[in-house]
């Protein structure tokens, strides 16, 4: 287990164990999200904004309260605070709940995405808009890394899986919603799962469009991860890491050792609720009709692997 290292910039603040550190209120110390960002940034995590962090970890009516809010009474949300020990423990928990995908595996998925785009197995269009080819390749790569994270997690539980990396002629022909092609438990032979398994990116919600949820692609098991693909500089760090002229062109960015993927959880069909377009739920709404599971309501990933065999056979 990798132990969190506190950056010197945080250690130099000399914040004592009883000093309040606020989620939002102005004070003499950095806010909670700023300290969390400083601690987790070296491990490849995306940065939180103040509002995002309150929602995810504490100080918000919709948060999972993963960091204790010590404020009580009226104004406890807007004036919420915690302590340094709680912040460090939170960061350690977040690191423990992640998978680091090595750069060579990221490149492998990038090459698959490049072929899919260049040979027109996947269209450049997305959500009604035309993407640059490199933009589409990066988008696809990010999506594939959720599946790679699941494969790594399975291997750590002595389960081998083969992801579906077939190409299908024509953009209308797809894998029909099956992300796991074959699975092998211990000394048994590889088998095809008897149900469809979908591995998805889960932010605040694990979302599945109603058309997909009830259509030909409908799955029975949904697994959620969150890829920390920082928009600010991940692309430039990635291209520098490929070598060649990239090392020269992007020399002002460090190389990339891998991509961090956070475990979110898993769900069965009965866990989903209806989220109609424009209906507000947990403080958010969407343009399309979806089925959803709020990310904090997903089943614990640790409970998936002991049950996986019975779920898919």
Based on the model shown, name its key terms.
single chain; 313 residues; alpha+beta; four-stranded mixed beta sheet; three-stranded antiparallel beta sheet; 10 helices; 19% strand
Explain how this protein is built:
Helices cover 32% and strands 19% of the residues. It has 10 helices and 13 strands. The strands form 5 sheets. A 4-stranded mixed sheet has the order 3-11-10-8. It is globular, with a radius of gyration of 21 Å. 29% of the residues are buried.
Main sheet attributes: strand count, strand direction, barrel closure: 4 strands, mixed
* Mean pLDDT across all amino acids: 91
Proportion in β-strands: 15-25%
Strand order of the largest sheet: 3-11-10-8
The secondary-structure class comes to: alpha+beta
The geometry reads as: globular
Please count the helical segments: 10
* Uncertain stretches: none
Helix content: 25-40%
Q: What is the string of SSEs from the N terminus onward?
A: HEHHEHEHEEHEEEEHEHHEEEH
How far is it from the N-terminal to the C-terminal residue, by CA? 32 Å
Secondary structure tally: strands: 13
Please give the radius of gyration in angstroms. 21 Å
Write the layout of secondary structure elements.
Blueprint: H1 8-11, E1 21-22, H2 32-40, H3 50-57, E2 81-82, H4 84-96, E3 98-102, H5 103-118, E4 125-126, E5 129-130, H6 133-156, E6 159-163, E7 180-185, E8 197-201, E9 205-209, H7 210-214, E10 221-227, H8 234-241, H9 245-249, E11 258-268, E12 273-275, E13 290-294, H10 304-312
């Amino acid at each position: 287990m990798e132990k969190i290292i506190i950056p010197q910039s945080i250690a130099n603040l000399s914040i004592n164990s009883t000093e309040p550190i606020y989620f939002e209120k102005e004070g003499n110390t950095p806010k909670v999200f700023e300290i969390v960002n400083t601690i987790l940034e070296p491990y490849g995590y995306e940065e939180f904004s103040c509002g995002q962090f309150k929602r995810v970890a504490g100080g918000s009516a919709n948060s999972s309260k993963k960091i204790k809010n010590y404020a009580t009474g009226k104004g406890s949300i807007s004036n919420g605070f915690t302590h340094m020990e709680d912040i460090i423990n939170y960061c350690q928990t977040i690191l423990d709940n992640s998978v680091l995908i090595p750069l060579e595996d990221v490149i492998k998925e990038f090459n698959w995405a490049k072929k899919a785009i260049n040979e027109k197995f996947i269209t450049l269009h997305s959500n009604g808009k035309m993407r640059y080819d490199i933009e589409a390749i990066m988008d696809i790569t990010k999506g594939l890394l959720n599946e790679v994270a699941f494969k790594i997690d399975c291997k750590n539980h002595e389960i081998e899986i083969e992801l579906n990396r077939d190409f299908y002629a024509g953009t209308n022909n797809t894998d029909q919603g099956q992300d796991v092609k074959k699975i092998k438990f211990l000394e048994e032979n590889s088998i095809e799962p008897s149900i469809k398994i979908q591995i998805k990116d889960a932010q605040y919600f694990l979302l599945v469009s109603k058309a997909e949820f009830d259509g030909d692609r409908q799955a029975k098991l949904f697994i959620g991860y969150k890829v920390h693909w920082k928009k600010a500089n991940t692309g430039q760090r990635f291209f520098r890491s490929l070598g060649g002229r990239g090392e020269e062109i992007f020399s002002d960015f460090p190389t990339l050792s891998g991509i961090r993927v956070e475990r979110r959880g898993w769900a069965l069909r009965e866990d989903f609720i209806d989220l109609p377009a424009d209906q507000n739920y947990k403080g958010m709404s969407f343009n399309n009709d979806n089925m959803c599971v709020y990310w904090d309501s997903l089943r614990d990933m640790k409970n998936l692997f002991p049950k996986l065999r019975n779920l898919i056979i």
